[in-house]
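Marked as duplicate of an earlier ticket. Keeping the data here for the record.
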Amino acid sequence: MSFLSQYGLFLAKAVTVALVIFVVVARLVAMGSRRRHGEPDHLEVRRLDRRLRHLARTIQQRTLPAKEFKALDKADAEADKAERKGVERKGVERKGVERTGGQPGPAVRRRRVFVLDFHGDLRASQVANLRQEITAVVAAADDGDQVLLRLESPGGAVHGYGLAAAQLQRLRQRGLQLTVAVDKVAASGGYMMAAVADHIVAAPFAVLGSIGVVMQMPNFNRLLKKHAVDFELLTAGKHKRSLTMFGENSEDGRQQVRQELEDIHILFKDWIAEFRPKLNLDEVADGRTWYGRRAQEMGLVDALQTSDDWLLEASRDAELLHVRWRPQAALGDRLQNWVAATLERTAVRVLDRAIEREQLPPG
């Protein structure tokens, strides 16, 4: 019996390992197939106002009398038809301008709001997508159009978020009104981006601010000395490497890095002051963060509102165009994202079960 138990346990482990290998190989093959036959880099545009209308009509179909709902459905069809005619008319007028050099007549259409998303990480890696989306919007937008950026970021690398903020500045230079909506967090580099907006709205408990600069790094010099390991660092230029992870750092090197951080902080504050001149930087630019309601009192945001409510209000008289750049991910990137997502889901499940066990009364 002992032998059978051990053999059964061994067999179960072997089957588990085999299944894991099979799943990984199958996933790689599937990713490779999609890579060969998938779409290239492309811009995706969706009508959010129609999606919102569809959500409302789904409930109204169940709650309104049939005659009343039919009238709404007919009004929607007429509005869509009028919108299509307006687009066609505008296209004809533009074509006429190209051929004759004349001036187009008035083309009536709803205003447009381009909706962008930015979910930031420490490297601001999504800035590559953002620059494509903004280039498309700047090229296609007409006077009077607006942009809403749904922003979520705790900040990160200075150069990455500096570029992201500069991309948003292109919208203002084009004359497009920019609104930034913060539902969760826009701190440090995230707030550097938000400050560019003409108008900032935030949820009541969104986290904003952190106008400061931080640098941290471990130093293993004492550990290396303990194990008699020498570390050599050769540089040309007094401040080429002020601090190092493995060498013995000097107070002069630390002071040099502090000066560099202070200089970045000054540039950060100057950037904020350029776009929000009424903000009291002496009070808010010390690295602290505030929740939405307090952030409004400090002048960091203009209104308390979720992005959902902002879009719902705008959809009453505007076309909401969600613009998203979809790059074709390399096989390695897809595998990395899949592994990261799998680990995250597993961790969330384990945490949820642990919380459930703590909340359940003892049996």
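See parent ticket for discussion. Confidence is low (pLDDT under 50) at residues 92-107.
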